[in-house]
Amino acid sequence: MTLQGYVDSIKEKRIAVIGAGVSNMPLIRLLLENGCEVTVCDKRSFPEMGQKGEELKALGATLKLGEEYLEGLDHDLIFRTPGLMPFDPHLVAAAEKGSEITSEMEVFFSLCPCRTIAVTGSDGKTTTTTVISELLKAAGYTVHLGGNIGHPLLCDVPQMKPEDFAVLELSSFQLHSMKCRPDVAVITNISPNHLDKHRDYQDYIDAKMSIFAEQTEENKLVLFLDDAHSAYYAAAAHAKLAYFSDRSKVENGAFCLDGKLFRAVNGVERPIMEAKDIRIPGEHNVLNYLAAFSATEGLVPDEICRDVAMRFAGVEHRLEQVRVCGGVLFINDSIASSPTRTAAGLRAVKCRPIIIVGGYDKHIAFDGLGDDLCRYAKRVFITGATAEKIRTAIMNSVYYPESHLRFEVIDGFDDAVRAAAAAARKGDIVMLSPACASFDAFPNFAARGDHFKKLVMELKDEDIGYQA
Predict the structure, then answer these.
(1) In the prediction, which pLDDT does 459 show?
(2) For the whole model, what pTM was predicted?
(3) Is residue 28 within 8 Å of 41, Cβ to Cβ?
(4) Cα gap 370→26, rounded to integer Å
(5) What count of other Cβ atoms lies within 10 Å of the Cβ of residue 420?
């Protein structure tokens, strides 16, 4: 079915779209411009919606706004926002009344005319997805990048050709209860995350399974050999399996041994490159490349893999070097929204950084983060809703007494950045790597990273190092 055919098929239905955010706005415009009856449900008030509210009103949407935005859902078709889980009582009640619950991403998969590669996991999703996109583009394919990064792809379906690729980053929110069948699925790793939204950790683990649940033996599933959850996923999979590892050889996939990256097909190994030649730093990025090499086996030649790895400078907001001011290097690692990503960043930089951590509380433990900060950070500035939890984790760390780590809790994000700059000396690194989501103060990690970069660009040499 074409996109227009799909829209025509639902014109007579009463439609609700929950959330007028980035992922749903193109969908809302498409439906309204085609004469559909659409109710937009959003927690924000009309003044808080700003120009977006005015636009929706002008397009003819019915607006249901404010704290009661989910009450009385009984529409024929309901598009949920990724952050509203399918087990929300309002959605469950609507489904029991006969409502069909779907999402922009689920409809995209049902209509997408081209090949798809989808990536999920707790860490490394964005870099792995972006690297796969870069590899395919370098090999001459037309690539449509989207999902949890880039922009929503549903409205781009008419421009897609069968020989193209859609490369998608998918979050547990998007995947939960969703039906999709990517040609290639990748799960980078699994660790506790988003426990503020999921029923429990097992629900989070199982949500990721949707990325391969509909696959058949014609498709491929790429798993991290050394992740404890991969055996669980492999046992439930119907697709061909490939693996990546930085500890062991694999029969099919990619691996790193003795500082060299290899691809393998049916046990036959091919050397690709030296790990030290990968341009973006950090052992975690070796794994990201191994996942990408495994996903694109048979599609991207080895020499192109090597060329891309040697020239690609990395993803914005991921260990992004912002500027040097007063001899201090400032690094934006805002995309590090979990403790494991921050730990990887701490190990990737060339010296112990002065680090800014803290943010929205996803109800995950910070014990390991406390250990990593004591072992690898020079000084810590803590801010945001999780400040007390992170402070406690540092003080409870077995490494704290001997580390003599200096840390400080600061209420405001801007003040924390300026305090970190003031504590730095020539040759230091100041790094934003929050280990938390941004939602206590910013709409997303990109907005947080952009604001950090703005603050850093406003610094003057005299702002550096005036605090002991």
Answers:
(1) 96
(2) 0.85
(3) no
(4) 42
(5) 27
